[in-house]
Design brief:
The chain has 493 residues and is α/β, with parallel strands linked by helices. It is built from twelve helices and 26 strands. It is 27% helix and 30% strand.
Length: 493
């Protein structure tokens, strides 16, 4: 699935400047091709990337994750798909207990409200969770959904309180506790839970009556789950919202075991320009704004109030969230790949612990046949043929070359169009380069020398080319090289 750079042209080629003759040439597999003759003064803009390996600026805390939703059965049955998760070193796999798209992962077939007990069939859930552990990841189980249609996302037989519109706290607590009890009994160390999915859809931005209703349900569930197993980690997404976290900490909200949020940078196809979307990749919910605490500030606010540092998890994310008319076609193209890379790089820099991509796979044939946009769904892998799209390769490049605890080095770029991240992994220097624009640049590296292996994704192979793959090659770090527009490249010593 990988192709050598020499077979694919010169989009990451060496740039030679011959003094005295004013000739700049590209080295390709077919030799030296002059692109600037004597007398011409035409050149690509230069960007300097400096790496200071004598200055460590921190350590990496980020691990990657993915969500497996309606494709869960195919993933269970497909060694190829499971290997794709394993080879990209995904460490967290999120899934739901409630969605109609995954009915066989609803282990509670009926709930007896008066007895607060259920009828359970754990077969598919157990197989799924076992598979998750087998590929080297941990499950994150999201229990229920707080919406105007909550009844659709809780077990049959469970009653919705007419006043709150939510399950009764003790009943919901008993239901959640059964998951912890089951995995404890079966010796499967499931740690991560969310309850309920996207509750901000229920309580909005500042409906504190509804927020108090939700808090009562969460508090009861968290207490019951921790009583059964004190090692579980329980939270809910949207805890980075300023009104939510502020109210929670001031009004008796149960302890949170992690900050959780969902990051989709647009909800309308084409609403933002590519440049704006790529800027939002690095800022929206990652940095503090008027509505949200950023990753660092949300952890700090929680520590100030409760005296404890807790992890931060981007528990669901993608380029665009629109789905009613089809997904955004840019999710899988080079812009979506650069968006993914920028998000993960910034996540490393701000101390994010996990970033979960929604979703692992989707069917291109189904999406094209049934949706107006021609989008390919939210997946990073085509479930029709198990071939990845570019966002998967971005995550594989990082996931297989970046570990928790890797030392980060100081890096600077002379142009804001380029982003860089340098670190030490298993004794090898790694340098990630991301070109954020569709311009060609001559890149000059400072502070490092020697030969580097290169893995690269860029515009030279169309994102929908059947042969799409990570291109590979090698460069001498003392030589200037060229990137042709949107590029994600990893250099390894």
């Amino acid at each position: 699935m990988e192709s050598n750079i020499l077979c694919r042209g010169f989009s990451f080629s060496l740039l030679f400047v011959v003094l005295g003759s004013a000739t700049i040439s590209n080295a390709t597999s077919e030799g030296i091709i002059s692109v600037l003759s004597v007398g011409s003064v035409v050149y690509w803009p230069r960007v300097d990337v400096s790496v200071n390996v004598s200055r460590a600026v921190g350590s990496n805390y980020l691990s990657l994750g993915t969500e497996i939703d309606y494709e869960w059965k195919q993933w269970i049955d497909s060694p190829v798909q499971r290997e794709l998760v394993s080879s990209a070193s995904f460490k967290l796999v999120r899934f739901f207990d409630f969605k109609n798209t995954s009915p066989l992962l609803k282990p509670c077939t009926y709930w007896n409200e008066s007895a607060r007990t259920g009828t359970w069939n754990w077969i598919n859930v157990d197989i799924f969770v076992q598979r998750v552990f087998t590929v080297g990841a941990e499950p994150l189980i999201c229990l229920g959904w707080a919406t105007d249609h909550t009844q659709s996302f809780i077990p049959a037989g469970m009653i919705i309180n007419a006043t709150t519109g939510l399950p009764n706290p003790m009943s919901w607590a008993a239901y959640c506790k059964e998951f912890v009890k089951h995995f404890k009994a079966t010796s499967m160390p499931v740690r991560f839970y969310e309850t309920m999915n996207e509750p901000w859809a229920y309580f909005g931005w500042n409906d504190y009556t509804k927020l108090a209703n939700f808090m009562a349900v969460f508090n009861a569930a968290a207490q019951a789950m921790r009583t059964e197993d004190p090692n579980v980690l329980v939270s809910f997404d949207g805890t980075n919202r300023k009104p939510v976290l502020n109210y929670w900490l001031a009004n008796g909200g149960a302890d949170l075991d992690f900050i959780s949020f969902h990051k989709y940078d647009c909800g309308t196809i084409g609403y933002y320009s590519d440049a704006t979307m790529l800027a939002r990749a690095e800022t929206f919910q990652i940095e503090t704004s008027s509505d949200y605490y950023g990753v660092q500030d949300s952890r700090q606010v929680y520590h100030n109030a409760r005296g404890k540092w807790i992890p931060a998890i981007n528990s669901e994310s993608n380029y665009d969230s629109v789905c009613d008319v089809g997904s955004d076609p840019k999710i899988q193209d080079i812009v979506g790949a650069v968006w993914t890379a920028l998000l993960l790089r910034k996540g490393v820099l701000v101390g994010l612990n996990y970033s979960v991509y929604f979703t692992f796979s989707s069917s291109a044939s189904w999406e094209k046949a049934n949706k107006a946009t021609g989008g390919l769904g939210f997946g990073m892998v085509n479930s029709d043929d198990n071939k990845p799209w570019y966002p998967y390769y971005v995550q594989k490049i990082l996931g297989s070359n970046l570990s928790v605890g890797d030392v980060l080095f100081e890096t600077t770029c002379s142009s804001s169009d380029m982003r860089a991240l340098a670190w030490l992994h298993d004794g090898h220097l790694k340098l990630l380069l991301i070109c954020r624009t569709d311009r060609t640049y001559a890149v000059h590296l400072n502070g490092i020398t020697g030969n580097f292996d290169v893995m690269r994704i860029d515009n030279t192979i169309p994102w929908n080319d059947p042969a799409r793959a990570v291109q590979t090659g090698a460069i001498d770090a003392t030589q200037t090289f060229v990137v042709q527009g949107y590029t994600i490249a990893l250099l390894s010593s």
